[in-house]
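[SOLVED] Predicted holo structure with zinc ion

Edit: marking solved, answer below. Original request kept for reference. I posted the sequence and ligand SMILES and asked for the 3D complex as structure tokens.
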Amino acid sequence: MSDAQATKSFERYSHVGVAVDPIHVGTGGARLGRVDNTIVRDPATKLPKIPGSSLAGVLRTYVAMAEENGRNQTQRSKPYYPDCAGQGQKREGDTGGHCGQPSCKVCTVFGFARGKDSAGGFAGLAAFSDMHLLLFPVATREGPVWVTSPGALRAARIDHKIDDENKVYRRNGQGQGLNLGWLLLDGGNLTDDGVEGGLRKLRVPNFILDRVALVSDKLFSHVVNSNLEVRTSVAIDPSTGGAEEGALFTYEALPRSSVLCWEVICRFPGHFRIGKDQIAAVKNPEEVHEVVRKAHAYLEALGIGGMGTRGMGRLKVLDASSGTAAQSQEAEAGGMA
Ligand SMILES: [Zn+2]
């Protein structure tokens, strides 16, 4: 495929979200060091991340909820696409599973494993990157700062290099040493407006922009991993409602007000077919993105990752262009909770 065709084939949308609660996207229970329930990390950088597959799964569920909610308000007949929300495994007797219809917003945008009459699956018109840590809140003697690094900024397509691997760079930070948690660092000046400008373009709010601190990738990994939230909790025995004996466990999470960034690639529907049929649910990449965005209000209300019952996982997507739509969806999501 030539470049000219490729640019027409998809649109890329950048998103940034702020953790309203601590967020725990777990590795599935492996015990590592002192923590029972660890979060997913990038194998190369050792930084916590949320896999794109987790994001896609959660957004799929919420879009299906939004679709279902919209339908309920207009007519109260049987659901159109009752089994399109989850993983799409068929039940015994070959019922259920993703509908796989070209008119289904959930199945066309998020894909499905196997179509009707056991036809081939479809990868989906939206593709999701991993959610990367962009800005990480750390306690300092001057109050909280949000730490980032050249590598973290690169994931948000902001280019910046630093001179001294052992300094913490802030606006007017020259000579102003600063502790990041237990770590005390010499201060350097963050003079490049590109960092702030780039973050502002991604809708990072002012109270964070005012308190950005930049360190090397190596230090960033150290700072993040030594300042994660580690909580201790007790497993509850459902039969008694009391604490299970010996059931004390710890888990780690991204702290509240961590800022994550991710990208959504939305493909041009006209370039794909489901079986022999043209896709009817969406017409262009913008409409694909509109479908994805329906989930954002739900992400803020219901969250992502585990421990949701312990008040974790809510994420506010910072997306100024979705203002009015998000508000009406918020009302819907609020009504459901
Ligand atoms: Zn479907």
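OP edit: DSSP finds ten helices and 15 strands in the chain. Thanks to everyone who chimed in.
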